[in-house]
Amino acid sequence: MDNKILQATRELIDEIGYPALTIDQVAARAGVGKAAIYRRYASKAETAFAATMHDQQLPPLADTGSLHGDLLALVRAFHSRMATPAAHQLAPALISEIAVNPGLDARFQDTFLAAEQAIFADIIEQAVARGELAGTVDPAMAHLLLLGSLASALYIINLPVDDAMITDLATAATAGITALADRHHSDVGRAVEPH
Is this model's pTM higher than 0.85 or not? Predict the structure, then answer.
């Protein structure tokens, strides 16, 4: 049933666009009741987000052997989802809805963002294990540095995002995460030094 709902949502967005989309249309196309959709998703925006940008599965974690390589693989995978015409229609609507709906905001944080930040936690853990980072970094900050920058470029500044920019974003995020790890490691070192 989940796949039917998400497929129907994708098809309708392609056919009529996000603004004209209704949950009634999704239910009819998927052959399910509206209640079945609302048990899974709190709103039209969340349903569309799950169908077009987040999907059922996040990109698999690519262990490329380096922090930069892992971040580059991740941002490329997310770019392919975030740069679609449907995502350009949806992102502003979702941001607007989250701003006025605390329940949707909490749900979004606890599901989609938590899953994305878990990927960053794994990437950071691997980089620490390889000796690339002096210590851990808050996955939320790593998420902001990489995917926050990508979202801003795509949806707010409206920059043409090509592979060169994606590579630059991964390079900048790698430098930022490394600097944060170094700073946190040196702060911990100073805190335990005898006075």
Answer: no
